[in-house]
Amino acid sequence: MKISSITLREIQMSLVHFFETSFGRVYSRRILLVSVDAEGVRGWGECTAGEDPYYSPEWIESAWPILKHYLVPALLKGEVKSGRSCPALFARVRGHRMAKAALEDAVWDAEARLRQQPLWKLLGGSRREIACGVSIGIQDSPEQLLEKIATELAAGYRRIKIKVKPGWDLNVLEKVRARWPDIVLSVDANSAYTLDEVEHLRKFDAFKLLMIEQPLWDDEIYLHARLQRAIQTAICLDESIHHARDANFALETGACRIINVKVGRVGGFTEAKKVHDVAQSHNVPVWCGGMLESGVGRAHNIALSTLEGFRLPGDVSASKRYWKQDIIEPEVEVRPDGMIAISDAPGTGYTVLEDLVQKLTVREETFRAG
Ligand code: OSB
Ligand code: MG
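Above: inputs. Below: predicted complex with 2-succinylbenzoate.
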């Protein structure tokens, strides 16, 4: 693959509704998009690093210089055969997985378009439709949360996940379960608890949750194994899993029974497939997490979710839940049965609205080959 140029862009987009987790609230996104021009096609990637270093140490202002000074030059001077060849070219740079993923995924996208093949097939997927869930943030009141849940259930979503933190957990679950005793329900704590709170966390068992996501420290796996032994609810790890070795360690130690795969968090499609494969070998289900992505990242999450091991509904939901207008066409739509149909078109099956992207762009830098 002959890469002629790579462009970094920052776009700014307001969320339709604020999103609050245990680490804070966001009203609008600053999104770093990467495009790779090669042999007449353009591949797109999205960096899932946030506006702040709260979910992970990476943020948009760390990703940009890492891409500019290290990752982009590595691709422009290295031999890029395919998306798969990127991790080796990036290996000297430690960490910075979201920055790496943005560029690697753009190369996969370009490769799929060059081969005139759907990205999901190139990734090894087989599902022709994928099941969708929603992640609902902390609201101003429990009543508002119940209203949101009712809306999403009416839209057909197959799993409701609510964000929890001390003070917004058991009290809220009581109300949700009182109204909907049987829905598929899970919670995500984004590391809001410690091992001193085992007795409190044990009380979650009463609510028959599909899982509790990342209850403890983001940099800890082993102590989740201790917690998992003490509670019935299945633990799902998100923040703690950076690569396939982490996944293997977590499953061998019994730290979780489910894994959330986020392509940005693990450094790109190549590693995401490896995490998937490790989980498959332990017969553990995975699902695709979300990071409030624009259509570019959303389309990539959809492609990844076609892999066989993605057996639980992902946080892959419709564009209109986040954006007044998404930057892709068609927008991501979820059917009334809570599924997204997978396109047979080459690449992601979604077209980037480049004029709109240009309008939303607040900074841009292009790097050309030799
Ligand atoms: O922990 O899954 C998470 C959003 C930002 C950072 C972390 C997380 C999330 C979500 C939102 O839960 C998922 C989505 O709808 O994109
Ligand atoms: Mg999470």
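The first helix runs from residue 60 to 77.
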